[in-house]
TrEMBL record:
<keyword id="KW-0560">Oxidoreductase</keyword>
<comment type="similarity">
    <text>Belongs to the HMG-CoA reductase family.</text>
</comment>
<dbReference type="InterPro" id="IPR009023">
    <property type="entry name" value="HMG_CoA_Rdtase_NAD(P)-bd_sf"/>
</dbReference>
<dbReference type="InterPro" id="IPR004553">
    <property type="entry name" value="HMG_CoA_Rdtase_bac-typ"/>
</dbReference>
<dbReference type="InterPro" id="IPR002202">
    <property type="entry name" value="HMG_CoA_Rdtase"/>
</dbReference>
<dbReference type="InterPro" id="IPR009029">
    <property type="entry name" value="HMG_CoA_Rdtase_sub-bd_dom_sf"/>
</dbReference>
<dbReference type="GO" id="GO:0140643">
    <property type="term" value="F:hydroxymethylglutaryl-CoA reductase (NADH) activity"/>
</dbReference>
<dbReference type="InterPro" id="IPR023074">
    <property type="entry name" value="HMG_CoA_Rdtase_cat_sf"/>
</dbReference>
<keyword id="KW-0520">NAD</keyword>
<dbReference type="Pfam" id="PF00368">
    <property type="entry name" value="HMG-CoA_red"/>
</dbReference>
<protein>
    <recommendedName>
        <fullName>3-hydroxy-3-methylglutaryl coenzyme A reductase</fullName>
        <ecNumber>1.1.1.88</ecNumber>
    </recommendedName>
</protein>
<comment type="pathway">
    <text>Metabolic intermediate metabolism; (R)-mevalonate degradation; (S)-3-hydroxy-3-methylglutaryl-CoA from (R)-mevalonate: step 1/1.</text>
</comment>
Length: 437
C-alpha cells in the first residue's frame, strides 16, 4: 500500500511530481512527461496557474472557441465558448445563424437579487426571538458598514434582512435571510463576509439580551453562507418567427413547429427527458460560464434547483404557437460576474470579455441565456428531424481519428469519405485499416 504523505503542499512542484511518480505512476518517465508537456513555456502564465489552486502539477486544457453570428437585442456577438463536447460550438453557431436570419434573440434581465442565510438553532419562545430580531436588525446592518462601503458607493449592498422560522420542519431551526445587490460582481466573497460579520454580531448581542437570559435559551449560529439558489436573479431570452419560416427538408413550417412544441411539452412533463433536455441547455450556458471565468458549479446548482421549483423537475425552456407565430423562450436564474474572481485574472477570460465587448453582469446574463436557448434549439431541432447522431458523429469523427493517431493525410481522406456516409466508430476503424493497407 502507498504511504500517506505529510506536508505535501509545502513541497516544490518537482518534489510533488517525484513523489507522485514514485508512489502512483511506477516512476514511468512517460507519465511525468505528460505533466511537463502541458506546462506553459511563458513563466508568468504558468505561475498564474500554479497559484490558482494548491498542488498544481500541470495545466488541463479545454478548447476555447467562438460561436459567431449571435444577434441579441439588435447587437452582434461572437460568443466565446469553452467545452470538450465536439458538437456544442457547431450547434450554437448553426442556431445563431438560423435566428439571425429571423430577427435574432431578444433578452431581458428580470431581476438581480442575490441572497444568503445565517442558519441558527433556537429553542426558546417565538415572542423572544421575534423581539430580539427587531432589536438587533439595525445593529446587524451597522456591523457590515465597512465591508459594504465600496459596494454601496457603486449602488449595491445589503438590501434587506428578515427572520425565517423553519422550526415546524426541523426542530429549533431558524435563519436570517439576507438579500443583496452585487452589481457586476458575482458577489460570493462579499455576501459571505457580510453574513459572517452579521452572524458574529447576532451572537454577541444575543448573549446580553434579557429575554433570552430569563428563558435561559440563546440562539446558536450553525453556519453563514450565500445561497446558490437565486430565483430572484432571473433572465429571460426569446426567439420568435412566423411558423412558415421554420420549414426544413421533409417538414412544413407548421409540422416542424408542432413537433418542436410537443418535444418541449414532453420535457416539461417527464423528468427523464427534462434532465437531458436541460443538460443540452447547460452545454451552451456552461461553455460561456467557463470562458468568462465564472463559477459553473454555482450556476449548475442554481439552474437545476430552479428547474425543480414546482416540486418536480421540468424543462427550462418553453415553446408555443399562437396566431401562426412560433415563440421559444428560456427563463433561468444566473448569478454571474464580470468583475472579481477569475474574470480579470485569467488572460483568456479577459480576452473573452473583450470579444463580448466588455459586457456588464446584466449583459452577460442575457448572453448566457441566449447561449442556452440556442443550444437547446439546435438539439431539439436535430432530435425531431434527423436525430442527434448524424451531426454528433460528424463532429466526433475527428476524436475517433485522433484516438487512432491518424495522420494529416488520413484525416483529410476520412473527412471527404464520411462527407456523405454515416460515421460510426467501427466504420472509421475499417476505413483507416483499409487505407493503411
Ligand atoms: C448532448 O450533450 C445533449 C442532448 O442530449 C440534449 C438533448 O437531448 O436535448 C443532445
Amino acid at each position: 500500500m502507498n504511504q500517506p504523505v505529510t506536508g505535501f503542499s509545502k513541497k516544490s512542484k518537482a518534489e510533488k511530481i517525484e513523489w507522485l511518480a514514485k508512489n502512483y505512476l511506477q516512476n514511468n518517465p512517460e507519465s511525468i512527461q505528460i505533466l511537463r508537456d502541458y506546462w506553459n513555456e511563458n513563466d508568468s502564465i504558468q505561475q498564474l496557474h500554479d497559484d490558482f489552486i494548491e498542488n498544481t502539477l500541470s495545466n488541463y486544457y479545454l478548447p476555447f472557441a467562438v460561436a459567431p453570428n449571435f444577434l441579441i437585442n439588435e447587437k452582434m456577438y461572437a460568443i466565446p465558448m469553452v467545452t470538450e463536447e465536439s458538437s456544442v460550438v457547431a450547434a450554437a453557431s448553426n442556431a445563431a445563424k438560423f435566428w439571425m436570419e429571423r430577427g435574432g434573440f431578444k433578452a431581458e434581465v428580470i431581476s438581480t437579487e442575490k441572497n444568503g442565510q445565517i442558519h441558527f438553532n433556537y429553542f426558546g419562545s417565538e415572542k423572544s426571538i421575534n423581539s430580539f430580531f427587531e432589536t438587533v436588525k439595525s445593529k446587524l446592518r451597522a456591523s457590515i458598514e465597512s465591508i459594504e462601503k465600496n459596494m454601496k458607493k457603486r449602488g449595491g449592498g445589503l438590501l434587506d434582512i428578515s427572520l425565517v422560522d423553519k422550526s415546524h420542519i426541523l426542530d429549533g431551526f431558524f435563519y436570517i435571510h439576507a438579500t443583496f445587490e452585487t452589481l457586476d460582481a458575482m458577489g460570493a466573497n462579499f455576501i459571505n463576509s457580510c453574513l459572517e460579520q452579521m452572524a458574529h454580531t447576532f451572537e454577541e448581542e444575543a448573549a446580553t439580551f434579557e429575554a433570552f437570559s430569563k428563558e435561559n435559551e440563546f440562539p446558536e449560529v450553525i453556519m453563514s453562507i450565500l445561497s446558490n439558489y437565486v430565483p430572484e436573479c432571473l433572465v429571460r431570452a426569446e426567439v420568435s418567427c412566423n411558423v412558415s419560416e421554420l420549414a426544413t427538408s421533409g417538414f412544413t413550417g407548421n409540422q416542424f413547429a408542432e413537433k418542436f412544441v410537443r418535444a418541449i411539452e414532453i420535457a416539461k412533463t417527464e423528468t427523464r427527458r427534462a434532465v437531458t433536455h436541460n443538460k443540452g441547455i447547460m452545454n451552451g450556458v456552461d461553455a460561456v460560464v467557463l470562458a468568462t471565468g465564472n463559477d459553473f458549479r454555482a450556476v449548475e446548482a442554481g439552474v437545476h434547483a430552479y428547474a425543480a421549483r414546482n416540486s418536480y423537475y421540468s424543462s427550462l425552456t418553453h415553446a408555443k404557437i399562437e396566431d401562426g407565430i412560433f415563440t421559444f423562450w428560456i427563463e433561468i436564474p444566473l448569478a454571474v460576474g464580470t468583475i472579481g474572481g477569475l474574470t480579470s485574472l485569467h488572460p483568456l477570460t479577459k480576452l473573452a470579455f473583450e470579444i463580448l465587448q466588455k459586457p456588464n453582469a446584466k449583459e452577460l446574463m442575457k448572453i448566457l441565456a441566449v447561449a442556452g436557448l440556442a443550444q437547446n434549439f439546435a438539439a431539439v431541432r436535430s432530435l425531431i428531424t434527423t436525430g442527434i447522431q448524424k451531426g454528433h458523429m460528424k463532429m466526433h469523427l475527428m476524436n475517433i481519428l485522433n484516438q487512432m493517431h491518424a495522420s494529416k493525410e488520413e484525416k483529410q481522406n476520412a473527412l471527404s469519405h464520411f462527407e456523405t456516409r454515416a460515421v460510426s466508430h467501427n466504420a472509421v476503424v475499417q476505413f483507416l485499416e483499409k487505407l493503411r493497407n
